[in-house]
Known about the structure:
Blueprint: H1 11-38, H2 40-44, H3 53-56, H4 61-82, H5 84-102, H6 110-130, H7 136-163, H8 179-201, H9 206-209, H10 219-235, H11 243-249, H12 251-267
Amino acid sequence: xxxxxxxxxxxxxxxxxxxxxxxxxxxxxxxxxxxxxxxxxxxxxxxxxxxxxxxxxxxxxxxxxxxxxxxxxxxxxxxxxxxxxxxxxxxxxxxxxxxxxxxxxxxxxxxxxxxxxxxxxxxxxxxxxxxxxxxxxxxxxxxxxxxxxxxxxxxxxxxxxxxxxxxxxxxxxxxxxxxxxxxxxxxxxxxxxxxxxxxxxxxxxxxxxxxxxxxxxxxxxxxxxxxxxxxxxxxxxxxxxxxxxxxxxxxxxxxxxxxxxxxxxxxx
Length: 268
């Protein structure tokens, strides 16, 4: 919210934003450790997840029991310097993530809704940390794009399952036959996010932040290309388990990002 509202000159907001970022990093890391400990047995049966520290045995489970409270204490401590509302949202993030690791990830489609909600919750946390109101357009766009990426993560797991001639994903509510339906739902959700962005370009709010908003239409085909490419690669079974990790390592994703930033700069 701080960047989409073009609030670049407030040093206090940036300071709180950075504190919020690190606070989330520590708490999210604790959540991932909890998830890995809960999934220990199923991870050992997975061709990729079995290389994780706990599943492979390179890190003893006892280390997790020490690290988890330590990370939570550091993250929680930092959150108090950001603000009480942020602390509440961080607590909500932790509790929801814990429920996801414990139970929700086993439920058909509720798991991806939960994942998308956790990403969207980060936006509310950023809004509370910087005291910049979250835009309804940003919220709507994020919900659909995050849902698309969450579904892509599941599809990549199902593709891997198909190569092993297995029917069920261990610890999940999906079957190999669900891959096509999930692919359709995920691609549709990604395209809806672009539609939301296009509607935003026709709204009166866009003129508040951009001098030449018509130039922003050039970002729509770029985002459509990126989403389409993610799903084509995913359907080939070549997508990393996490689409975000894939994007970080993907040269084309950086090219799209730079072009989008350039168009945003021109429009501003």
